[in-house]
Amino acid sequence: MDLVLCHTTADFDALGAAVGLCVLRPGSRIVLTGGCHPTVRDFLALHRDEYPLIERRSVNPQRIRSITIVDASQRDRLGKAAEWLDLPQVSEIAVFDHHLQADLDIPATVTQIEAVGASTTLIVEKLKNQAENSDTPFRLLPSEATVMALGIHVDTGSLTFEGATARDAIALAWLMEQGASLGVIAEYVEPGLSPQLQDLLREALNNLRSETLHGYSIAWVLLSTEAYVPGLSSLASRLLDLTETDALLLGNVYKFGENENNRNIAPESPVSNRLTIIGRSRIEGTNLSELFKPFGGGGHARAASLATRDVDPLLTLNQLADELKTQIPHPPTARELMSSPVRSIRPETSVGEAHRILLRYGHSGLSVVDAGDRLAGIISRRDIDIALHHGFSHAPVKGYMTPQLKTIAPDTLLPEIESLMVTYDIGRLPVLENGQLVGIVTRTDVLRELHQQKARDRGSNAELSYCAVPESVEQLLRSRISPELWQLLSIAANIAQNRGWQLYIVGGAVRDLLLATDDTLALTDIDLVVDGKCGSDDSGAGVELASSLQKLYPESRLDVHGQFQTAALLWHKDSAFGSLWVDIATARTEFYPYPAANPEVEASSIRQDLYRRDFTINALAVRLGVPRSGELLDFFCGLLDLESKQIRVLHANSFIEDPTRIYRAVRFAVRLGFEIEPQTEGYIRNALASGIYYRIQGENGRAPALETRLKSELKYILQAPYWKVALQMLGDLQALRCIHPSLELDRELWRQLRLLDRCLQGRRKKGSATDYVTDVTDVKEVRKKEEGRGKKKEGRGKKEQTIPNSQFPIPDAQFPMPNSPFPIINIPDWQMRLEVLIAYLAPEYRGKVAANLQLPADSLKRLEVLEAGKNELAENLPKCELPSQLVLLLRNYELPVLIAIALQSPRSARRQIWEYLTKWANVEPPLNGNDLKALGYKPGPGFKRMLDDLLAARLDGYLGDRAAAISFLAERYPQA
């Protein structure tokens, strides 16, 4: 275990430096050795989960490998954690500090103590150097950049303290480039006030008037001074922070052109004055700029000011406060924020079982309910980790859960929820209705709502790791789909709403809606998700909704998949919908019992349903029906990835759980013209290099994701017009190893695939040999050479003419191409390509791989006989001197087998097979069975021999017409 220690009463500089070191040294954990400053405490109350923090009591000293101390160089600043410095197994102790005057009494093996304004600057310089010298793209998370920027801001007084250096400024600038949030920095940095402003602050605190509306606190105060006071904006910001007010109007009135020193101006005082009002707001939906506009003021929606004269100051301020109240929106309630249903356990559940459930569902805590389903307590991952650390895996959770809980009701407002979390440092709040647990609101839910509120405000910058989302896309959706489809979605939303459910359109339809540039969007496949409990049976809300819709649309076909709580409505060539597939599912989560397995699914919330999806751009949802109809749900910044044109996976183990996502990543990247995000590409390569899929196949006997699901993805890719680019990308990723560990896209396999493609093109173009040129030969040059060949003198014999570097010959003019088409191949192109991939494996692997992919029986048979056929033809093709010998040999092979053999054969054999396919395969005897009977021959086994001889004679040029054929028979087969 590698630890980074912050000194006791940690400040932002210590925390920022520690976070930066964890980026430099992945896997390290941060220990706050003894509390932290109040502002740091408040910051971590909301953002703790963003950083790799671990409690001191959870550390096993025997597992410590290295220790790094930041912003301190003396043992007494580390509290009890200083004892770890003397452990014998600790191999490295490093110190990073900027306090030159302190005496180092730590037995450090590495030290860096330099005269900079903040210790964080030293770490940022290392990160910046690593980024500049890295071969792969490097970028901090916004949450990491933000806390490091806070460390430098606080310790340097935003670069105003005497110890601040140019190095601190450069480090801050780089962190801003990396996405540090100015909004969050401003929220936690405390600039100083001048003595005059400090006096006014005390006066403002004594005279402040406030009111709470919809859970928001609105305050206003009027100050009187003898003259204009600079810095009132800083005073307003400090007052806003100290009072924890959500919106503030700070007025300052002073005499204009008069030498009066009266600081107490009554409402009825003469209005020969100047009035300045500073406005600050943290409330979404308020617009101070619009509020101040009638008085000549302006600014931003959340920060504005006005300056006016000759008005009644108190009356004006009160009037503006009343108008501000009308702008206050009704904030979201717990019912809108909560996740439901809630994963719960009984008090008797063991700590070990609770840990398994947390691992399975990725939760950070579990609700504990009694036999009557009444909430008994909550146990967090932290509590479980400590119990496991002390060896109590078999103990019941009731001994470790928190029984005295803060709870909220479904109608509790967001500001109250936020206040409870910050005040009591609570990461999750159960939602109770009539004593029953109906949902839970987590710190993540609150953070997401707060940051999306800020992002939707035009005057705010991007916050931490969340991106801006449009408030509603309902009009966009309605304008781009057909009226009939919009009516269908509206009816479905109404049915869901009447049953107390929420309905969402999710996945690819939302992605394509946001990417579409045309006015109309032709949707043929729509995924709907129902978030709600179904009371009628176990089939789920999705199945019940689909059944209700089918009664209203009897022309549709209903398919139900109860195991996965899904149903589908299908229309085929319908007058209104055309060919449409609407998949309706109950919101669910899934768990993979082992890598590459089929997932186990359970009912869950819309957020969990979106989290189980493959990529962020497919984890988007649009709410259908009130409230908040048309709201775009983007929990994972899929919209930002759409704008950046990148494919990003949702979690690091995604490809371990489902290797087919590797193929989908490539398919979406090529089809949409996107790039696979570097970290996602790293996850792909790590998953493939781990060899986990083949270990699982050995342990479990099978890996479902590498069977029919992989075949489906291969089909999507190999039948697409962009299959070559996609296959090359798969080859670069070495992803063909999912088919078999030895399969790689080398030059020889690529050559075979390109030859097959030319062959398939020839089938479609009736065997035009000019289509079969190599990559380096220009088509125009081929045509010129053919034209030139036709003008040359005869006398070169029957030798075939070829194009230099061409894989296939252009037949001699004396053997014209048959009028009949290329032989029919009753196999889809994608399957032919897949068989070529499998055929490239060693013979002993081909059948097993084809069986794993569940290819048809005839495909398995072709792959099994391929090697024997190739050896047979390698022996017999050189013996074929006449066309008849070639035809009689090759006609015994299936056309796909012949093509596969040709691809793996030398050029001479390939030329003979191609000659057979393009010249002789469709040549027939000049007479048929009926002709033989008309000539008086009796039907029997001899007919076949006679027809074969006729065919051979015609192929070899001995028969020119029907009369010659009859004479041939009379000579060879005389009748008695």
Salient structural properties:
alpha/beta; seven-stranded mixed β-sheet; six-stranded mixed β-sheet; 15% strand
Can you summarize this structure?
By secondary structure, the protein is an alpha/beta fold. 43% of the residues lie in helices and 15% in strands. The model is unreliable at 258-271, 458-466, 534-538 and 766-820 (pLDDT under 50).
What does this structure look like?
The radius of gyration is 38 Å and the shape is elongated. The protein is an alpha/beta fold and 976 residues long. Helix 12 links the parallel strand 12 and strand 13 (365-369). The termini are far apart. The chain is built from 38 helices and 27 strands. It is 43% helix and 15% strand. A seven-stranded mixed beta sheet has the order 19-20-21-18-17-24-25. The chain has a six-stranded mixed beta sheet with strand order 6-7-8-9-11-10, sandwiched between helices. Strands 2-1-3-4-5 form a five-stranded parallel beta sheet, with helices on one face.
Secondary-structure topology with pairs:
Elements (H helix, E strand, L loop, with lengths): L1 E5 L5 H13 L4 E4 L5 H10 L18 E5 L21 E6 L12 E4 L5 H14 L9 H15 L9 H12 L4 H7 L6 H13 L1 E5 L2 E10 L6 H12 L3 E9 L17 E9 L6 H5 L5 E2 L3 E7 L3 H15 L6 H4 L6 E2 L5 H11 L3 E5 L5 E6 H9 L24 H11 L3 E6 L2 E7 H14 L17 H7 L2 H16 L3 E5 L1 H8 L9 E7 L9 H12 L4 E5 L4 E9 L3 E9 L1 E4 L8 E4 L2 H6 L9 E4 L7 E2 L4 H7 L1 E2 L6 H4 L2 H13 L2 E2 L1 H13 L1 H9 L7 H11 L4 H11 L13 H18 L14 H13 L37 H11 L3 H10 L4 H20 L6 H8 L4 H10 L2 H14 L8 H6 L7 H14 L6 H11 L4
Helix pairs in contact: 1-3, 1-4, 3-4, 3-5, 4-5, 4-6, 7-8, 12-13, 17-19, 23-26, 23-27, 26-30, 28-30, 28-34, 31-32, 32-34, 33-35, 33-37, 34-35
